[in-house]
Amino acid sequence: MIDIEALKNYAFDTIGAIHEVHKELGPGLSEKVYQEGLQLELLERNIPFKKELTFHPTYHGKEMEATYRLDFLVDDDIIVELKSVDSLTKEHKAQLFNYMRLMKVSVGILVNFYPKFAEIERYFFSPEDNEIYGSDGFPIRKYV
Asked: How many Å is the maximal CA-CA distance in the chain?
């Protein structure tokens, strides 16, 4: 069984860094500006991360040529996807969910820096039951 509260605590420092970036830079800039700001903030906080990490999905255990790119992989188990758009869409969420599932990463954070107050959504993946959960602990998407 997935422990949502423990995973929320695990992601606490990363969420704090995201808030600091939005507080410092303000709303409405390009995604690249926020990406660079978050990189600097994570470095200042000594939080380990990989920026623009590419990976290949697998099919029947074989690596495919197709390539995906994550904005950030923090602490090797938190995917952070940045946006600067009017509003987050189901396609943005699907992108994050697929990254989490394909990489078997427990925590996904979707951030929209565009509004006056940053939109930050946290999701959790349980590889045991192949399901994505929301912050409230309720299942959002089950993969067969």
From this structure: 45
How far apart (Å, rounded) are the C-alpha atoms in residues 123 and 96? 9
Minimal CA–CA distance to 118: which of 33, 9, 27, 40? 27
| The two three-digit tokens of residue 76, written as one number | 């090797």
pLDDT tens digits, 29-53? 999 999 999 999 999 999 999 999 9
